[in-house]
Write a structure and sequence with these properties.
The protein is an alpha/beta fold and 361 residues long. 24% of the residues lie in helices and 22% in strands.
């Protein structure tokens, strides 16, 4: 290429959370050298992926299903420490141990078609030309805010899980928590002892899962998410299809009425939320525990989206462009799924680059 100031590499990894670090590890094991053959770009200011932004009251002992990164176990962690600290330190040690040399903080603005079959990755530290790309940007930077009539008239405070500061800030307040997932129930159970009143609102009746959740159940849940991705539909989270584990904390919340679910309100009024049957719940705070959407806007110039709104994948490979692999997207948006996806993406990229070299010679 003749582009002045454009640096050429074989692979760019965007994101250094669980999925991105797993991919970088497998690239390294496959003989690719960091900062020579591949580069890892991370938007976050420090190691830890999205975990570094979790609220302080989410201790490591309350984290559901955290799996160690490949090649290095997370052992001896203090369950009482914030998960942001424990996992942040673990990711930092992992990067150092395997010499992954993550570039941060680096924002990726766009990925475009370049010359000679390469992709141009435009970032805040310059432009890269790459033969393949692993997108591991996750969802944390794109919280989903539903829109309801009258939302702008509410006199109280509205915030999202991404901004959740911990339960003490809601002392003496009337709080409406919207969302039937794990975050919504955790917020409610934490806030209830401090708040003047709590109300739990969900679009669907929550499903509580009793008994063990083994490999067979896990595979079935992942298959449901994977089917949507194969069809080019926007992915749902794995958690959304597994239901809520009926643990002791949930049982207590159901027994004392904290987890008494109300159907979704019809509109927001200045003093709270309202239903068409005339019922109004007054509130000082509406906390939207309504999940996140994949961070993929930087890929828009490549036109990867299907008419259904999602990016269709074959495994981790984007069907519309075999140079691009998506990890931590759809069925791999879990810590164990991210590990497997990182390995699968690198396997696919090795085949792709091998074919490119054969063609070039």
């Amino acid at each position: 290429m003749n582009n002045i100031g454009v640096r050429e590499v074989d692979v760019i990894v965007i994101g250094a959370g669980q999925a991105g670090l797993s991919a970088a590890y497998h690239l390294r094991r496959s003989g690719y050298e960091p900062d020579r053959d591949f580069v890892v770009l991370d938007h976050a200011p420090r190691p830890g992926g999205a975990w570094q932004f979790r609220w302080p009251s989410l201790t490591y002992g309350r984290v559901h299903g955290m799996h160690s990164l490949p090649g290095m176990e997370l052992t001896g962690a203090d369950d009482s420490r914030p998960s942001s600290e424990v996992i942040g330190e673990y990711f930092a040690a992992y990067e150092e141990r395997f010499g992954l040399r993550v570039h941060r903080p680096v924002d990726v603005a766009a990925v475009r078609e370049g010359e000679g079959g390469r992709l141009l990755v435009e970032s805040s530290e310059g432009t890269y030309a790459t033969r393949a790309l692993i997108n591991a940007t996750g969802t944390w930077d794109r919280p989903f805010w539903p829109r309801y009539p009258g939302q702008e008239t509410f006199r109280g405070r509205q915030l999202h899980t991404a901004q959740y500061p911990g339960p003490q800030e809601f002392a003496g307040q009337r709080v409406v928590v919207v969302g039937g997932g794990a975050s919504g129930t955790q917020h409610l159970l934490e806030i209830a002892p401090y708040a003047a009143a709590t109300t739990w609102v969900t679009r669907r009746e929550p499903v509580f899962r009793e008994g063990p959740f083994g490999e067979e159940e896990g595979r079935a849940a992942v298959a449901l998410v994977e089917d949507r991705v194969r069809q080019g539909l926007p992915p749902r989270s794995v958690v959304s299809v597994t239901g809520l584990p009926l643990n002791d904390a949930i049982r207590e919340g159901l027994a004392n009425g904290v987890l008494e679910r109300q159907p979704m309100f019809d509109r927001i009024v200045p003093e709270g939320v309202a239903w068409d049957d005339g019922r109004v719940v007054e509130a000082d705070v509406i906390l939207w525990a309504t999940g996140f959407r994949p961070v993929v806007d930087h890929l828009a110039p490549l036109r990867l989206r299907e008419t259904g709104g999602g990016i269709r994948l074959d495994g981790t490979r984007a069907v519309r462009d075999p140079r691009i692999h998506m990890v931590g997207y759809g069925p791999s948006a879990s810590t164990i799924g991210a590990n497997r996806a990182g390995r699968a993406a690198v396997t696919g990229i090795r085949r792709l680059l091998g074919r490119q070299r054969e063609f070039a010679t």
